Amino acid sequence: MAVDAGRYSLTLSRRTRRRKGVNVLMQALATLAALAAVAVLALVIISVARRGASALSWDFFTKNAATFGQSGGGVANALVGSLVIVGLATAMAVPVGILIALYVSEFAPPRVGDLVRLVLDVLNGLPSIIIGIFVYGLLVIGSGQAAWKGSFALAIIMLPLVARATQEVLALVPSTLREGALALGASRWRTVLGVVLPTSFGGIITGTVLAVARAAGETAPLLFTTSIAANAVTWDPRQPVLSIPYDIFVLSESPDPADHARAWALGFVLICFVLVTSLSARLLLVRYRKRLEG
Amino acid sequence: MEADTMNVVAPIEIAQPREAPRSASDLEIVFETRGLTVSYGKAPAVSDVDLSIYRNLVTAIIGPSGCGKSTFLRSLNRMNDLVPSAKVEGEVLYHGQNIYGDGVDPVEVRRRIGMVFQKPNPFPKSIYDNVAWGLRVLGMKDDLDSRVERALTQAALWDEVKDRLKKSAFGLSGGQQQRLCIARAIAVEPDVVLLDEPASALDPIATSKIEDLMHELKNEYTLVIVTHNMQQAARVADMTAFFTLERTESGGHGVLVEYDETPKIFTQPADKRTEGYVTGRFG
Fold first, then answer.
1. Residues of B with CB under 8 A from a CB of A
2. How many structural domains compose chain A?
3. Is position A48 within any domain?
4. Staple partner for A123: which of A60, A142, A147, A160, CB 3.0–4.6 Å?
């Protein structure tokens, strides 16, 4: 044969065989790493659910902790407490967060906007225990704990999350829409209110929901601000109230094995809440993107 | 040379004035720019433009890419204010008053001088609300329904959308969206409508609808259109201004070469550069 078999060979040579081997190995490692992440999440959820399942009951959700020496009891006050604290924190953080985002993307000169974004990222990176101590020093010393003080601490944690998420969706709003509104003789603020904000509504909701999910699980900021609570359901934000994450901590420190089961069960409730909120936020975002892209 | 030019230009269809040619001196001047230079940072995009735009005429601005036509157009309603580095020198007199003068509010300028953009940019709202939004913002809330209907009718869109006014504007075709944007702009009863390549993103049928529309609209409004499509300028415009890019050591900037009645620009241009452009030898 006149064809040079070596030069045009399509089978693997030794060198290409080694390259192929490296390729297969790295692909396998990367796949394994991704699987590990999924496995960790699955393991956490399964183990928490298995250990907590025995404690889940009607009483668990509707009763407060049993008094010392008695069996039974639940975590109703912690559930209500978390609802109060996180709800109030959301009410504080969302309007301010949206305003910050509007300032950064609509009104600030570019350099100032970059600076504010950097500050938000730094604030987001602050350890939550520091924020807890800060609020303790600012609000708690001298006047005692209260649910709203815990909310204030959580709001500081939520603020950069809401502001950054909102600012990112505002950046997605095409500038041609703003121009269209301004060309009609609308002021900047009317343009923001009538066109920019409604367009980014879905993204703002997503950011808010993710921030709520994060805040619901925060323990450290509540330690100093709303932890010494009465064993009763209270909706009054001026009272200190118990919260889900702090109650998990308290229950797990208890000598009673039934309390340990309750801690797991409460952990399961918290995980479910975070999962549901995060997933629904993702779904919202997908739907919103579709709408924006027409 | 003259005959040669005529031959090359002949295939372009030129708008026939419907009445006897009006001499420019009889017409009311809406805009008069004096030494208008717009720069981004230090580089001028368009330099030293003196141009008068007349009432109830369609004025086309043509020229090659980068010659500053859009920049010039956007300086007529202070849209360039939105670009932080943009700087305007010279004067833009609108009915005699400088729109860049002290005490002039850009929001007030834009309510009188509307704009339609290159890409259709309907708001993510219903068809009705797209037109009604500007009316509500400007407090023209009396008889909202009939104002919306009138604007959509003027924009030759009413018959196509009257049964789905509450549906999203994104469901419309590109050409319909652009006519919706025109309806939105004229609903607030501006004096002038600026159109920045309004048909460049549209197919030929939608384009011809927009062009027909311009013939109608000039009875009520003064229209200024930027286009890179010479045939379009020849078809719709009464007056045509030709801009070109003048190369300099530091890059280049747009200049106004020639401004005259459209037939003159396309058949007997005074400047060699205009002739080169309209006959397709350059640009």
1. 77, 79, 82, 84, 107-108, 110-112, 114-115, 117, 119, 121-125, 133-134, 137-138, 170, 181, 184-185, 188
2. 1
3. no
4. A160
